[in-house]
Amino acid sequence: MNIAEAEGGARVDLSGRLVMTTLADAQRALAGLRGPGEVTFDLARLEAMDTGGAWLIVDLGRRLEGEGVKVRVENATALQQALIDTVTKNLPEEVAPPPEIRGFVPWLATVGEATVASFQSAIQMLGFFGLVVARVAGVLVRPWRLRFTSLVYHMQEVGLNAVPIVALMAFLIGVVLAFQGAAQLKQFGAGIFIVDLIAVSILRELGILLTSIIVAGRSGSAFTAAIGSMKMREEIDAMQTLGLDSTEVLIVPRVLALILMLPVLGLIANFTGLIGGALMAWIQLDISPEVFFGRMQSSIGVWQYLVGMIKAPFFAAIIGVVGCYKGMMVEGNAESLGRMTSQSVVLAIFAVITADALFSIFFSLVDV
What 3-state class would DSSP assign to 4? Predict the structure, then answer.
């Protein structure tokens, strides 16, 4: 192959064999071919050319013509010319991407499409929630259909294995609340009210809410990843082929495990949070643990604790259903699995916080 450059352009003298086995070398040799001027491909000394060689000539010609360079092919045999013409006809046309439209109307259309998609997804999730409730009710009526081994396994995964991180989180939250609250209450000589601040905050809101957020990130994402992986490997289709109800086999044990274990985790979070708060109150305000828990017993009613515990099963159901639903929505590729796992965590946390706000309004209306 010889490339002769002149003022009027360049002349490429092709020789030897321009076939698939030599195509890579030819591409490297011709990669720097540019204008200006006319580029001529001389095929007089070319011994053999296959479809790959014809594609190289056509592709280079298309690129150069796109840069405003005129391309000619000389001394091609009838067979070589026919091959070049066939490749040219069958190459797909290069379609320019549509121009990006900016402005208020396209933005409004995008917002509308996202809103409709979110509404449709909410309707589908509501139907999925109804399906799970029906299957749970069926299992409660016929308990022999419940897979106890799977239930116990998931109770261990979502409950027992989550105790260290939940306890540590709640302890640190209690410490931070006491530390920040003590700095403010000292100014007014009302240090004893740190007990009320810590107890109400942890027992009523923060204990169960932060526990649910941790469980959503830890167990909800695990549900999505596990079920999504089974969906990718077509294991769920195989189960349905065998006559097994995938909802009853895969989803009911996970949701029930969360409903049973989240109140336990919430109780542990409350206990360790109060210990952390009591410890910091002792250090910052010289309020001994006896005084701390005595004040809490006399001023904090049992409803402050029950309000948090009432929320726990509802939060657990939300996390379980969202995690399993997103797992069932996974398609047959890894990118879909990662996207759905991320959406599961975000949606579960958002739904839990929204539900907590609704519970706060409800308890405020009923004066609890």
Answer: strand
* Under 8 Å between Cβ of 264 and 217: no
Cis peptide before 36 (omega within 30 of 0): yes
**What length is written for the chain?**
368
| Mean predicted lDDT score pLDDT of the chain | 86
Residue of 71, 11, 9, 91 lying closest to 45 (CA atoms): 11
Q: Do residues 79 and 208 share a domain?
A: no
pTM of the shown model: 0.71
Q: Quote the tokens at residue 233.
A: 């490997």
**Of the residues 90, 123, 148, the one at which a domain ends:** 90
**Whole-number Å distance between alpha carbons of 224 and 18:** 52
Q: What is the rounded CA–CA span in Å between residue 157 and residue 206? A: 23
DSSP for 196-248?
HHHHHIIIIIIHHHHHHHHHIIIIIHHHHHHHHHHHHTTHHHHHHHTT--HII
The reply to whether 47 falls in a domain is yes
The closest of 214, 218, 329, 309 to 259, measured between CA atoms, is: 309
- The pLDDT of 247-267, averaged and rounded, is 92
Q: Is residue 51 part of a domain?
A: yes
Q: Can you give the CATH number for the domain in which 37 is found?
A: 3.30.750.24
Query: Token pair for residue 271?
Result: 């206990």
Enclosing domain of residue 307: 134-365
Where residue 333 falls (left for φ over 0; alpha for ψ -120 to 50; beta otherwise) is beta
> What is the spatial distance between Cα 250 and Cα 224, in angstroms, rounded to a whole number?
11
With respect to residue 238, please indicate whether it lies within any of the assigned structural domains.
Answer: yes
Q: How many domains does the chain have?
A: 2
pLDDT in tens, 207-250: 999 999 999 999 999 999 999 999 888 888 888 888 888 888 88
User: Residues 56, 156: one domain?
Assistant: no
Beta bridge partners of 38: 9
